[in-house]
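User: Please predict the structure of the protein below. I'd like the answer in structure-token form so I can feed it into my own downstream comparison script.

Assistant: Understood. Taking the following sequence of 861 residues as input:
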Amino acid sequence: MDELNLSEIEKKLNDVFSSGERLVFWYDTTGAFEDSVDDLKLGQVKVLHLTDRNAFRAKITLEHDDPESQFLVYAPFAKPDVSQNHLEDTLLYSRQFFADKLSLIAADLHIPMRLRGALSDLYVFFGAGKQKLNAAERKEADKRTNAFIERAHEMDLESENEKTITLIALCVAADARNTTVDDLFYAVLTYGDIREQAILQKFDALGLTESFWQLCEERLGYSDPKHSLLRLVMSLFAVDTFKDQLTQVPNVWKQYAQDDMKSKASNIAVLLENMKNNVLYQESYDELSELAAQELHAADVLADVPLEELIHTSSFLLVDDLIIRWLCEREVAEDLQAQIAGFRVPEICEERLRFHFGSARSAQYHALLAGFSLLHAVGFAPKNTLKELIESYTTEDYQIDTDYRKFITNLDRMEDTSAFEKLSDLLENIYRTDYLEKLVYAWNEAYAENAMHYVITEQSRFYSLKVATIKEKVAVIISDAFRYEAAQELCGQFREDPNMEASIEPMLTALPSITMVGMAELLPHDTITMTDGKAPQVLADGNPTSSTAYREKILQARNRNAVAIDYDSLKQMKSKELRSFTAGKEVIYIYHNRIDATGEAMKTENSVFDATDKAIEEVFGIVRTLSKSGNVYRFLITSDHGFIYTRRKLEETDKLENLAGKAAFTDRRFIISDSRNDVDGVYSVSLGDALKNQDERWISLAKGMSVFKCGGGMNYVHGGASPQEMIVPCVFVKTQKGKVETEDVKFNLITDIRKVTNLKLKLDFYQEQPVSDVVKAATYRIRFESDDGEIISNEVLYTADSSSQNPGDRMVSLHFDIKKKSYGSDHKYLLRILKDETGAEVQSRQVIMDLPFTDDFGFGV
């Protein structure tokens, strides 16, 4: 929207007077045409110049001295307020003319007279008045003007004040997403490197800087003789860090956390909390937090602050580092009762994971959770009989292996493990000395005494008892070295899927617990035999079993509609190919090898736990894909054997000499030879008894954790006798052909709040049902709003995912900071609970804002 030039003004005025108008008032707000108005060629029309002192004289001229002539009444200033304008009644039967840009904008937006002054103050912003602009500058001014008009049309200016006009201009200049004070701050704080203050240079050029700093003072309490965005950010983070204990602000930060800012702590908390939760600004928030931490020397300052004062603080990543360091120290001290502000170690980890920087320190907190659980293995006492050992392992003890795996996996995901070095050494010692060595020794004692009298399903009976009894099409997924403890985790994932049912039971492998034996035992057969020599083969009813093709022949001999395939080949198939492949099949054996392939290679054996996680993901994916695209709805998941893995390198005392000679079949956990080797730490069992044939050779086994000297890695081993190596899973999964109806878990407010009387609130919420097959976890956004959509509190993002049957475990207390501002009776105020995924409202509660007078800037936005 441009100003009219002189010739355009002349034409428009002549048109107006030609239509019969006698009096035309022209209030030229900027006085841009004061020197040229007399040059206008208006025929017989007289020009009357108004000043701030001749209004009454002009009235006499127009209405008494010369009541017949046509007049252009020109004023080089804005139209006075009604109460101050002696010509107001004359205006009622006259016409008002606009030629300057500001007046045209005011007319277009129907801006009330009381707001015209604020609009006039923005003449630089609009490129109006006597400014000389080049073409590029005029183009930018027009762009700003159009943006201002577009935003202003969205507002009810009749009910706003002058500062709203300034806010619109600031939001346009900063390119804020919405015209609100908070959105302006977000735009300013994310406008490039704040140290360069590019946005302030823009504000300076547009005459907006003073208004911006006034807004900062009145909304955030920030006032500084040497204003800067960097000091603003430092002040915001200093106050937010201690928003719950404002009297505890360290002395060195008091220059930033001034009293005025502390009085606005609620507004600051809302601003930063909502910035964290907004995906558009999260990355910028992290950068600002890191910068503020550096400039405030937060690492040194907060190191002397009691953790009780920081436990609920999420302003800096280094707060998590301080808490993590303390947690590590407590676990190293084996202090299972350690607390911060009444929260024990697992509760601290779980809460910090929900905070903003929880994802950045996810590996550390999950490692600490696993480590805390692993500390309970101190003083572990294994059972005595094989039956008791199996029952104990499959119901409880396997969790120790899972905890160790989780600890190592998360340790490997950390960029810096220095804080965990002592804890890692301690847990390694506990896992190996307190748990593994005791359990493995007890297992071997019981196993030797049991003399091959199996007490649970034997792996050799898998096909006859599990596969052959299923009448529907079944896919058998055999994941090499997939341990029982990992299968428990996988089974839990199946149970969380509303379209799947899963159950698990243990099976016991034969000896040696190696791939060639386990893969043969899982096939249909009557007898299993092992050939002689250092590199033997295992045969099923005399047939080789070493490849997928050999195994398919054996399967088809028992069921002609059987097929075998490896995972990599299956994964390459498209949906149409997959349906074609499974069509007409009754038994589908799928061979998956992620864990063993990783563990057997010396270069990658330390990644075996990461491979376990990938295996869980991939096996779950096989089931989902075949159910969706392969018309398969029954699955059996098992393994050929398990394994033992510890991170600590073996000592020479852990290695046993190979006493059987060069002709024996030797691996790290067993020796097969013609002679029986019963020496210290070693015992022997009959190979014939193990394979249920007439083989007269012997299997020599280490009684404990020791290994025989031979090639290959020494940290990842299998083949011997231990629960980890010999107890393998048999998971049965049934998927639904049709979709099961599910619902999101319900989450409601249970605090009976009707009136808000404090800027800080703690409200109780309740997850109505436990998460189950048909009730899914859901994430909710909870906040206070006014009826015009203004968010007046921090927004809490909460995931309701508890599966506990205990109602008390499904209650949670959430904290809210209410904006410090004036809350009028002309608005309604609501607590709203929204689904994060859809934005749909699930509950709202109207509240009365009964707060002390807290007006700060006069904005309703």
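That's the full token string. The CA atoms of residues 202 and 672 lie 82 Å apart.
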